[in-house]
Write a structure and sequence with these properties.
This protein has 252 residues and is α/β, with parallel strands linked by helices. Helix content is 36%, strand content 28%.
């Protein structure tokens, strides 16, 4: 059985790592290069680096920061934010990223996902999905969770797999930053109906929340930011906790 993965997320704005609640009230969480080096040393299985301002502010992807981060890592590294074309992905992969994350651009033009998978291979493409449960229905959102669509989450993830996504990174906007736990019911549905790896995002606050995501949500990986950035949870201790609860995990 493949090991479950623990993935710190580096949300980037103006070249700094930031964290807030539901992408609002952002506070500085440190230099992304220094955090990347620390996480590589502390046992993270992968890193995700997202420029959360790129889509909103129409900025070019931060390939130079990606290159600096890649130079200090010995673990896989995903980068995203404002990716709209094959050229954007090529630039980031050449900068050293192992994978790229695409979100708003494939909602706007789903054929882009097919094109990226055909050009670079599904193993390089992570389809990020921000969704919010509104009156019992999970709806996909874009632009950092700010713009609602009429696309239903469960239909969308199945389409993403068919179009060539190698993984799905699902963030619950209801849970993001709240530290109240992951959206395990929705994660379970997505995991059961997709044959590609599912990464849980949004809501991590305790070690138990990670355990629940793996056992109840049946995900392949769990992503978090502030609990790692502010050292509320140590990755090594988290992995020991999960291992003690029979979760297959890479111990360091």
């Amino acid at each position: 059985m493949l090991g479950k993965r623990i993935i710190p997320c580096l949300d980037i704005k103006d070249g700094r790592t930031v964290k807030g609640i539901q992408f609002e009230n952002l506070i500085d969480a440190g230099d992304p290069v220094e955090l990347a080096k620390a996480y590589s040393r502390l046992g993270a299985d992968e890193l995700v680096f997202l420029d959360i301002s790129a889509t909103n502010e129409k900025r070019a992807t931060l390939a130079k920061i990606a290159e600096r981060i890649a130079q200090v890592l010995n673990i896989p590294f995903t980068v995203g934010g404002g990716i709209n074309s094959i050229e954007d992905v090529k630039r980031l992969l050449e900068a050293g990223a192992d994978k790229v994350s695409v979100n708003s651009s494939i909602v706007k033009r789903p054929d882009l996902l097919n094109e990226l998978a055909a050009e670079f291979g599904s193993q390089c493409i992570v389809a990020a999905v921000d969704a919010k449960c509104i009156e019992g229905t999970w709806l996909v959102h874009t632009h950092g969770g700010k713009k609602a669509t009429d696309i239903q989450l469960y239909d969308w993830v199945i389409e993403l797999e068919k179009r060539g996504a190698g993984e799905i990174l699902f963030t619950s906007m209801n849970n993001d930053g709240t530290k109240s736990g992951f959206a395990n019911d929705a994660l379970n549905y997505v995991s059961e109906h997709c044959n590609i790896p599912i990464i849980a995002s949004g809501g991590a606050g305790t070690m138990q929340h990670f355990l629940d995501a793996f056992k109840l949500g049946k995900v392949d990986a769990a992503l978090a930011a502030s609990v790692f950035h502010f050292e509320e949870i140590e990755i090594k201790k988290l992995k020991e906790f999960l291992n003690n609860h029979n979760i297959p995990i890479r111990l360091t």
